[in-house]
Every structure is written in structure tokens, then in C-alpha cells.
User: Fold these one by one.
Assistant:
Number 1:
Amino acid sequence: MKDNMPTKPTKKTVKQGSSKKLHERVFESDGIYFLKLVLVFLLGTFWIKFNEPFSIGIFQFTAIPVGVFIGFLLVRAFEKHQADRKIWYALLVVIGVISNFQAAGIVI
């Protein structure tokens, strides 16, 4: 007889409001990050260009990316995390290559 009786639907308990929350670690403020970005941009655009190219062996130089080299040293000295350093290195190289074709730099 118990088999013919309708069964009551069972209530499933579902946890609401999970207490797990993801927190972002902030290593530096937005202002510091923006200051670094501006500094890297300015360093990447600093070139010493020559009126007359000079040669070393088979290589001919019309400019030297002094700011890029200084930027590499500063990034290596001040950035603690390798992933951050890679981002700044890539940014320095891209800005350095683009600014080589612009009229930015000091002409000697």
C-alpha cells in the first residue's frame, strides 16, 4: 500500500551566499603604476642621434638608444616580479623601435 501513495517532493538544501571571495593583491597604487608608465615612455624615446653615421666593424650606427639601455637597468633594479619586468621590457623595446623613426632624440 505504501507504493501507491504519492510521495512528497523533497527539498534540497542549497547553500546561498558562499563565503568564498576572491581578493586581488594590489602591489602598487594606480598613481605609481602610471608614473612608471610615463617614465618608461620617456626613457624609450631618448636617443642620441648623429649627423654623420659611424662604423664599428661592418655595423653602421646612426643613433644609440641610451634611454632604452637606462630603462632596462632601472626596470631590473626596481621591479620585484618577473612577469612585471617582462611587460616593462616589452614596452621599452616597442617604444624604442617606434621612436627611432620619429624626430625624437638629441642630435650630435
Number 2:
Amino acid sequence: MRVIDRQLRQKVKRASKKMGLPEREVVERAVSSYLGSLEDVAALQKELRMWDILSARTMQKYDF
């Protein structure tokens, strides 16, 4: 498995040995976990934007 950053490659190698998993699986799980986190953050940001819009409309309605 070719990872661009040398330090990252070393971390993958250490994690692979520690967990007894192939390096490829370590990278795949890490990327999958990271992308899942990004999706969660995007969903949270979308929800917060909706709350901001709702709040602004409510404040306008009641002349705040």
C-alpha cells in the first residue's frame, strides 16, 4: 500500500502490527471512519442552518 506521507505510512504500519490487520484494511477502515464523520458534520451543519432560518423567521414574526 502506497501512502504519500512517510509519517502516515509509519503510523499505518504500527497500527497494522498492533491490531494484527493488513495495512490495506487499516487504511480502508480509517478512511471509512473519517468519511462517516464528515457526513455527520455535514448533517449537523445543515440542521443548524435550518434552525438559524427558523429562528430568524420567528424573530421577524414577533418583531425581535
